[in-house]
Amino acid sequence: MKFIVLVALFAVAAANSYRPAEYAPRYETPKYQTTRYEEPKYERFDYNKNSNEYVHSKSMHLS
Length: 63
Fold this sequence. Notes:
Elements: H1 2-16
């Protein structure tokens, strides 16, 4: 049991002493930009976008 505790302490000490290489290239982090979409235009359709009722045009009805 003492051996496991000793190994765990050694692993923690080794992990805390790790330094990244000085020669590693440093890149700037790209800025995150959210995608903004324009609101869809509903003028091409024959319904009110705030209503669920669809107003059919006369050309769509078969007589």
